[in-house]
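User: I'm putting together notes for a lab meeting next week and I want to include a structural view of one of the chains we've been expressing. I don't have a solved structure, so I'd like a prediction I can at least talk through. The sequence is below, exactly as it appears in our construct file.
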Amino acid sequence: MAPGSPPGITELLVRWRNGDSAALNALIPLVYGELHRLARHHLGREREGHTLQSTALVNEVYLRLLDQGLAVENRTHFFAVASHLMRQILVDYARRRRAAKRGDSLERVTLSGVEKLLSSARNLDLLALDDALHDLERADPRLTKIVELRFFGGLSIEESAVALGTSASTVKREWATARAWLHRELSPSAAGA
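Assistant: Thanks for the context. Below is the predicted structure for the 193-residue chain, given as structure tokens.
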């Protein structure tokens, strides 16, 4: 970095990780546009008429980042963490909404394949997916992380490989495994079991 030039994203992340809380305040304007895009990506997978807006989702992520003080390694890791937080926020929101309905259940959409699941994500029961991901995390945390990066974060195979510090071929293979596992867990026969 040239003397007098503003710090970059990675430098601000390092300063934040080392305890400089002002670094997060300087970081947010630099990453706001990308966070907003990520929020729109997450909300695009939600039901029509969702009441949570992308700006509110970004603001909630910012508040959670402040509260949790996560140790973020680099730009890619930061966006992976932000994506994970967005998923958590949306799941919490869905749980509160379901609880507010006092027993009215969400419509469960049955899907014949995981590709259809991913392409029809707007009709997805986010709570059922979250439950399945918790089960997957107990079996294989890395597969869950790949689903979070690819499905929720919108990262490519290559970007996911960088975030995980592994090869693209490994991510591709494990992504296929995770999709097959989710298909089995979210299929109509598993729902009735």
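A couple of points you could mention at the meeting. The chain is about 70% helix and 0% strand. The domain at 1-104 is CATH 1.10.1740 (Rna Polymerase Sigma Factor; Chain: A).

User: Perfect, that's what I needed.
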